[in-house]
Amino acid sequence: MTDKGSLQEGQYLFPYHHLPHFESDGRPLRSRRVGWGLEYLCYQRHIAALVGALRPTSVLEVGCGDGRFIGDLDAPGCARMGMDISEPAIAFARRFYPDVEFTAASSIGSVPTRLHDAVVSIEVIEHIPDELEAVFVASLFAQARIGGHVVLSTPSTNVPLNRKHYRHYDEARLRATLDASGAAYRIRSVEHVVPHGLLLKAYMRLTSNRYWFLEWRWLNAIVWRHLWTNRIVDAASGAHLVVVAERTA
What's the structural domain count of the chain? Predict the structure, then answer.
């Protein structure tokens, strides 16, 4: 006999009751959507592969939000920790991923007492005010052990500036920011990922706009295979910049 309680419990992998909602103008909607979801999944999975290749025994994600990256990180035997200044985001993260340790930081640049093999910050630095930019980067290296790594990603200057962001980066600007932090480091890799091209933009606008949201699974699969296979591109066409840097002192 089917255990009906188990069936219900299994649906709480995601809080599906929050999908239908009322907008601020009172209009009811049956779903929520992220039009750039394929792009998001692409750079998240790419960074997860980079972190996995480091074979860390402990990973800290700074600016973890609701914990999606660090919670889903496939790293058996690795201690995982997430940190964010948003207490509501940390509250979600703790519910979603009870096996991960989450901390609500008191301020930008907060430094815990523990050091980690890998410190990850994904699409966070562009949200940091100019006067705290170097402080934030210094705190990332301060939380990595000597010989450990900082993995940092940010939108590239090929992408129009989002109104939520203070700036986007090219490689020269990001290297200058790392230098300004005062950290002792060595760049291990610099990659430009996710093509900011007409094909992906056209697909995103065709299937997700203010009037409709279309999800064709077969077409999604085709676009995903193309996107993932061709995710590493040159500096002129990458939507995201990903740097892996080793702390040397």
Answer: 1
Please tell me the pTM assigned to this model: 0.91
CATH number at residue 57: 3.40.50.150
Percent of the chain exceeding pLDDT 70 equals: 93
Low-confidence ranges of the chain (pLDDT < 70): 1-12, 111-112
Q: What is the DSSP string of 162-216?
A: PTT-S--B-HHHHHHHHHHTT--EEEEEEEEEEE--HHHHHHHHHHBSSS-B---
Helix (H) / strand (E) containing 21: strand 21-22
- Cβ atoms of 148 and 184 within 8 Å: the answer is no
Residue closest to 171 by CA, chosen among 121, 119, 234, 223: 234
Tell me, yes or no, whether 218 lies in a domain: no
